[in-house]
Amino acid sequence: MADRALFEKTHANQYEQSFMHLVSSDLPSYLTELRVSMQRPISMSEFAKKGVDVSTLCRSFGLEGDFPGCYVLMQKGTPVYVGISRSVLRRLRQHVRGTTHFDASPCLANCGGARASRNDSSPSDGI
């Protein structure tokens, strides 16, 4: 999962390097960081717990607050969905706790059309 410092360093409005620098240097290092993060997925059940809100998740992950970025939903070690959001933690909660197919679309698709419950995530399913 990306952190706020990485986002602030690379946000399009603050990026001061050339496109070639982005493509040849920064992008490969960010993709490497993403691959490493995907080796340690966080179970989606963490985002479905009753009584756990975004501020609780921030504290448990050692973050100052929610953040914009990219996330990858995985099932049995295979990426099944890639998303971006201005509020990643809030969006992940929507995926598992949403009430419409717009909120929980990846979860619905991966559960054969049935709404995912907080018990549907196996330990290997995560972000």
Characterization of this structure:
This protein is an alpha+beta fold. The chain has one domain. The protein is built from six helices and two strands. It has helices spanning 4-10, 19-38, 45-48, 54-61, 88-97, 105-110, and strands spanning 69-75, 78-85. A two-stranded antiparallel ribbon has the order 1-2. Strand 1 (69-75) and strand 2 form a beta hairpin. The radius of gyration is 15 Å and the shape is globular. The N and C termini lie close together (8 Å).
Topology of this protein?
Blueprint: H1 4-10, H2 19-38, H3 45-48, H4 54-61, E1 69-75, E2 78-85, H5 88-97, H6 105-110
Antiparallel strand pairs: 1-2
Distance between the termini: 8 Å
Order of helices and strands: HHHHEEHH
Rough outline: globular
Determine the strand fraction and express it as a percent band.
5-15%
The biggest beta sheet is recorded as: 2 strands, antiparallel
Summed up, the helix count is 6
Class computed from helices, strands and strand pairing: alpha+beta
Q: What is the helix fraction of residues, given as a range?
A: 40-55%
Domain count? 1
Biggest sheet, spatial arrangement of strands = 1-2
Low-confidence stretches: 112-124
Mean pLDDT over the residues: 76
Number of strands: 2
